[in-house]
Amino acid sequence: MIAIARAAARLAGGIEVVVATDDARIADHAAAVGCAVALTDPALASGSDRVRAVAADRAGPDDLVMNLQGDAPFTPPAMAAAVLAAARARRSAVATPVIRLDWAALDRLRAQKAAAPFSGTTCIRAADGRALWFSKTILPAIRGEEALRAAGPLSPVWRHVGLYVYRRAILDRFAALPPSPYELLEGLEQLRLLEADIPIDTVAVDPPPIAMSGIDAPADLIEAERLVALHGDPHEPL
Q1: What is the pTM of this model?
Q2: 177 — alpha (psi -120 to 50), left (phi > 0) or beta?
Q3: DSSP secondary structure string, the chain?
Q4: pLDDT tens digits for 46-65?
Q5: Which of 165, 161, 4 is nearest to 77 (CA)?
C-alpha cells in the first residue's frame, strides 16, 4: 500500500504520503521503509476518522485529502491519481472510484458473496456519476439477465473500490455526525454522507490487472495471498 500511495503521489503531484494506523507493527514497518507514520487513537471508528485526525495537523497544496484504504491492496497508482484529478476538476465534496463489471466478473462476485456475504461493495450511480447508493448486496437486481448478457459484455453492476478523496470540511462534517442507520446496517461509512445529503462523485475506472473486491473477510485474505503467489506483488518497492 505504501508503494501505491507513493506512486500515486508522484502521478498526481503535491501529495504527502502518511500511513495512519493504530497498530504498532504497521507503524514500525512503514517507518522502516522511510514513510511518514501517524499513530491514531484505537477508539476511532473508521478509516475516515483516522484520515481526519492525521490531516488536521498537515497543510497541503489544496484542501483535498486522499484515503487509500489498506483493504484494497491491488489498487493501481494510476487509479488513485485519476480520482484525485477528477475531484479537483469537478470540485467534488467526495470522490471515489467504481468499476463496471463484465459478466464474468459479476459471476465471480456472486460466487464470492455465496461464501462471504459482506465481502465486496456495489454502487448505484446517476447518469452524471453521482452516487445514489452503496451496498454489500449486489445492486441492482437484474430482470431479463439472459437477454442483457446476449446484448453486450458489460453488466449493469458497478463495484466500488475502497479509495476516497475528500474536502477537509467534509471530513469535519463526517466526524461531527453520528453513525447513520444504514451505515450501521451495511457497515459502510460512506452511507453516513449520503444519508446527510452530502454528494459523492463516482469516477469510472478500468479494472486493474489483478482485481478483487477488497479484503473484508478471512476468505478474502486467502484469495489475496493466492493472487500474489500467482502473479507476484503488482507494486514494486519505491
Answers
A1: 0.84
A2: beta
A3: -HHHHHHHHHHH-S---EEEES-HHHHHHHHHTT-EEEE--TT--SHHHHHHHHHTT---SSSEEEEE-TT-TT--HHHHHHHHHHHHHHT-SEEEEEEEEEHHHHHHHHHHHHH-TTSS-EEEE-TTSBEEEEESS-SS--SSHHHHHHH-SEEEEEEE-SEEEEEHHHHHHHHHSPPPHHHHHHT-THHHHHHTT---EEEE-PPPSS------SHHHHHHHHHHHHHH--SS---
A4: 888 888 888 877 756 678 88
A5: 4
Cell of 202: 463516482
Cis omega before residue 156 (within 30°)? no
**Which pLDDT tens digit goes with each residue over 161-193?**
989 999 999 999 999 999 999 999 999 999 999
Reading phi first (left if > 0) and then psi (alpha if -120 to 50, else beta), residue 232 is in left
Of the spans 16-25, 160-169, 223-232, which averages the highest pLDDT?
Answer: 160-169
Q: Which of 74, 99, 103 shows the shortest CA–CA distance to 212?
A: 74
Q: How far apart are the first and last CA of the chain?
A: 11
Paired strand residues for 133: 124
For residues 108 and 36, give the distance between their C-alpha atoms in angstroms, rounded to a whole number.
Answer: 37
In the numeric block, the cell 512503514 is attached to: 30
